[in-house]
Amino acid sequence: MDDTMSDEDLVNRFPGQALNRDSAPHYRGRLAHQLLLNRCADCGTWHHSPKPICPACWSTNVIPTPVSGRGTVHLTIFLHQGPPVAGVDYATPYPVVTVELEEQEGLRFTSTVVGASNDEIRIGRRVALDWIGRDDTPLPVFLLPPRAQQA
Questions:
Q1: What is the maximal distance between C-alpha atoms in the chain?
Q2: Are the beta carbons of 131 and 26 closer than 8 angstroms?
Q3: Contact 38/55 with Cβ under 8 angstroms?
Q4: Stretch (H or E) spanning 71
Q5: Cβ contact 114:132 at 8 Å
């Protein structure tokens, strides 16, 4: 993870994102292709979005920690229109998924699935983390494993 990048450079690298003291380490992790979510060092509870206090025990001892990126599609929607975004074509509905990560029940992260047809993207499907570049910034996305690995 690049801890040497200034806050100003980080904000410039991720324009339009809500960067603050709590989320900055997570965006620095993305530059190293690490998906970091907060984990309480006192009780072990994971949580997302980045907040400075553990929602389970109220400890302030929360640490951005890498997750495996493996999980199950919990929710899926297909956008037929939306704001202009580089690499997003709404002519084919754009998939947005919320994935429940295997680290903890209820720990969820929202992104998209790449490399699959929309017909293949369904609730309950297993997924794995991958990375794409969008506007020269790393974006965490999910892949569907081959059907033989779904069981």
A1: 47
A2: no
A3: no
A4: strand 71-79
A5: yes
- What is this structure's pTM? 0.90
CB atoms within 10 A of CB 101: 23
Residues 144 and 80: their CA atoms lie apart, in Å, by: 22
Any idea what DSSP says for residue 118? G
Inter-residue contact 32 to 10 (CB < 8 Å)? no
Interval 127-139: pLDDT, tens? 999 999 988 899 9
Tokens, residue 87: 């690499």
Q: Is 126 helix (H, G, I), strand (E, B) or coil?
A: strand
pLDDT higher than 90, residue 99? yes
Three-state SS at 11: helix
91 φ, ψ to 5°? -60, -40
Tokens encoding 150: 């779904």
Q: In sequence order, which ranges of 1-151 are alpha helices (DSSP H)? A: 7-13, 24-31
Q: What is the dihedral of CA 30, 33, 37, 43, to 10 degrees?
A: -140
